Amino acid sequence: MNMVNWKAVQLLGPALRAPIYIAIVLGTSIVVADTEGTYEGKLNTGRSISFQVRVQGTPDQIFRLWISPDGIKSFLGSGSNVDPKVGGLYEIDFGLTPDGQVAGPRNNRILRYMPGRALDFEWTMPVFAEELNVDPLPTWVEIRLEPFGKNGDQTLVRLDHYGFGEGPQWDKCYDFFEQGWFDILFRLKLNRTFFVFD
């Protein structure tokens, strides 16, 4: 059974824990391709990771964090190569491996690009499961942004990671990304709570 590290959430204290609003949902979403993006080779396997978090900032501000170099550095990775359009690259750097190679997903393509509303992109499996990175890449991430709050100065961010298969390597990847996306959205929450980069 895959579970969120709730001990980490409990350690945050009520002031930070209460507004995180995390939901893990397995296989409840249906993906429908539209003219905004292409999902060739993608299959909703019924096994997905879903999180929601409420953050300070408008949907347009939060969208810019996901696509701009400075925004990405503020919560997601140490660098990026993003071509902000459908079909453009979405590559994130997570530092260097012990042998000096850049760590992070490569050759991911943007599937949907709707400023202030939605961003979908392919996502590669980690180094320990490179054999799962077939062409086309089987998994993808969907980000949805909705205005929230009385003044619309907050955003409800929903992240869904689709396409996980079955088997030991897929199980390891699922656990890896369940923790990874939780950490990334927590950093986004902290970024928008204590530091504002607009």
CATH class, named Alpha Beta
Q: Tell me the Rg in angstroms.
A: 16 Å
What's the number of domains? 1
Percentage of β-strand residues: 15-25%
> What is the N-to-C order of secondary-structure elements (H for helix, E for strand)?
HHEHHEEEEEEH
What summary fits the major beta sheet? 5 strands, antiparallel
Helix content percent band:
25-40%
Uncertain residue ranges: 1-38
The helix count comes to 5
CATH topology: Alpha-D-Glucose-1,6-Bisphosphate, Chain A, domain 4
Average residue-wise pLDDT: 82
Q: Assign the CATH architecture.
A: 2-Layer Sandwich
What's the shape? Answer: globular
The CATH fourth-level homologous superfamily: START domain
Question: Which short descriptors sum up this protein?
Answer:
198 residues; alpha+beta; Alpha-D-Glucose-1,6-Bisphosphate, Chain A, domain 4; 5-stranded antiparallel β-sheet; globular; disordered N terminus
Short description:
This protein has a single domain, classed as START domain (Alpha-D-Glucose-1,6-Bisphosphate, Chain A, domain 4). The chain contains 5 helices and 7 strands. It has helices at 6-10, 14-17, 59-67, 69-75, 168-194; strands at residues 49-56, 79-82, 90-93, 110-114, 118-122, 140-148, 154-162.
Architecture overview:
The protein is α+β, with helices and mostly antiparallel strands. It has one domain: 2-Layer Sandwich (Alpha-D-Glucose-1,6-Bisphosphate, Chain A, domain 4). It is built from 5 helices and 7 strands; from the N terminus they run H-H-E-H-H-E-E-E-E-E-E-H.
